[in-house]
Write a structure and sequence with these properties.
This protein is mainly beta. It is 7% helix and 50% strand. It has helices spanning 81-86, 178-186; strands at residues 2-16, 27-45, 48-65, 96-99, 103-105, 110-129, 132-145, 148-151, 157-159, 191-193. Strands 1, 2, 3, 6, 7 and 8 form a 6-stranded antiparallel β-sheet that branches. Strands 5-4-9-10 form a 4-stranded mixed β-sheet, with no helix packed on it. It is rod-shaped, with a radius of gyration of 28 Å. The chain starts with a strand and ends in a 13-residue tail after the last strand. The relative contact order is 0.17.
């Protein structure tokens, strides 16, 4: 009897765009891999062999905002506790603030948890008869990929432009986005929304 076993583990945690020590910026990427193989060859006699093997592979790709942005307390930004309680803590993040020219405060990113799992099992019987070799067996493979998305617009997305701060209705120009920033300082977003997924997914990346 010949038995072979192998296992491997890979972990990677990466921190990107942490420009300041603040929850509004910073992305945490996680890559995890778990692999295992078992292969057994049994000899019944000089002409009969059985090979049984199983393989497992799981790879996880995840990204989320930094830990200080997860479960973020919105009252720190001046929002009421009633508004803060509208968002479940599990999906609450530092909110998203949009300005002209695709400028975003609060990442504006999609958080993702995507595990990919593969199972492979096989059993093969080899039989030698005179000058012939016969093989009998079966193989089963399972490929599974799951994906779970969340985003900080589930906490709140606030868009600021010069709708309330331009000099007159005919003036649509906002040089360097200063009028939009004035709206931000006054707390007057043009649009605001809270996005809710169909299942309100809970996302945790560790």
């Amino acid at each position: 009897n010949h038995l072979f076993v192998r296992g491997s583990v890979y972990n990677r945690n990466s921190l990107y765009n942490r420009y300041t020590d603040s929850p509004y910026v910073g992305v945490n990427f996680v890559f995890k891999a778990r692999q295992g193989v078992i292969d057994d060859v049994h000899t019944f006699n000089s002409t009969t062999f059985l090979n049984v093997r199983y393989g497992y592979n799981r790879f996880i790709r995840g990204q989320d905002q930094q830990s200080d942005a997860q479960g973020f307390d919105m009252t720190q930004l001046g929002f009421s506790s009633a508004f803060n309680s509208l968002i479940p803590e599990a999906i609450r993040r530092f909110p998203r603030f949009d300005f002209p020219s695709n400028t975003v405060l609060g990442n504006g990113m999609s958080n993702e948890f995507r595990p990919v799992t593969t199972h492979s099992a096989a059993a093969i019987l080899n039989k030698i008869v005179n000058t012939h070799t016969f093989k009998f067996g079966a193989e089963l493979r399972i490929y599974r990929e799951d994906d779970n998305f969340a985003s900080n617009d589930q906490t709140g997305q606030f868009v600021f432009d010069n709708t309330y701060t331009r000099q007159n209705s005919a003036s649509g120009a906002d040089f360097n986005g200063l009028q939009a920033f004035a709206s931000f300082l006054l707390g007057l977003p043009t649009t605001q929304q809270i996005v809710r997924g169909a299942t309100c997914p809970v996302l945790t990346v560790r």
